[in-house]
Specification:
Elements: H1 9-15, H2 20-36, H3 43-50, H4 54-60, H5 64-91, H6 97-114, H7 116-125, H8 130-148, H9 153-157, H10 167-187, H11 195-210
Helix pairs in contact: 2-3, 2-7, 5-8, 6-11, 10-11
């Protein structure tokens, strides 16, 4: 497969040069793993959903585990680093606490929403799949210097957040709110939501939690 830069997993997949059967298998596995879980999805279901035989699946992927990794590894190895770098570059445009929180909440939720299927699979498998866990932890470790050297440091230097709070505390507050909302939207779609208002409330909660 090609390793071209992409910001949306499905867009990336659609642009790859590969046999139609292989693409259909990846698309179907992405859909079914997200909806039913990796363990809850049989290769026979993937084949039926993709309109191919099980033999076609094993022609391109030796095992179901290989199929899972073929979905996850490009995201961890390509999508996340590219989005991370673009995100931190854009942070330089924001100075005040309110506008910075607004950008982070809106930008990060857009990323979660656009890649909802792959994110759901990652959040589940990173807890139980050793290889995915190892690759993801490696990405986090590699990202720490970028995070520590980012323009986010000025929110501490300018005392825009409460004394004693660190950048990690600030990030954890935002990530916790966004992931909770993301999971609610995807796991409990029957619960009424207003995305615009909900994200505005998340911004207000974060600001209230960290402001001096």
């Amino acid at each position: 497969m090609e390793t071209s830069i992409f910001t949306n997993y499905k867009d990336w997949l659609n642009k790859q040069k590969m046999p139609n059967g292989q693409r259909a298998v990846l698309q179907s596995a992405l859909d079914l793993f997200a909806r039913q879980g990796y363990d809850g999805t049989a290769t026979a279901e993937i084949a039926k959903h993709a309109g191919v035989s099980q033999g076609t699946i094993f022609k391109y992927f030796k095992t179901k585990q290989d199929l899972l990794l073929a979905i996850m590894m490009p995201m961890i190895g390509n999508l996340f680093p590219v989005i991370r770098n673009d995100f931190f570059n854009k942070l330089n445009e924001y100075n005040g606490l309110e506008e910075l929180v607004h950008f982070v909440v809106q930008d990060r939720y857009k990323f979660l929403k656009e890649n909802a299927d792959a994110i759901q699979i990652l959040l589940t498998e990173v807890m139980v799949n050793k290889e995915i866990q190892s690759r993801f932890l490696g990405l986090l470790k590699a990202s720490r210097p970028v995070f520590d050297q980012s323009s986010l440091n000025r929110i501490v230097k300018l005392h825009l957040i409460r004394p004693g709070l660190t950048l990690v505390d600030f990030a954890r507050t935002i990530i916790g709110q966004l992931l909770s909302y993301f999971l609610q939207r995807n796991l409990m779609p029957e619960v009424p939501t207003n995305e615009t208002e909900d994200l505005k409330k998340i911004e207000q909660l974060v600001i209230h939690a960290v402001r001096p």
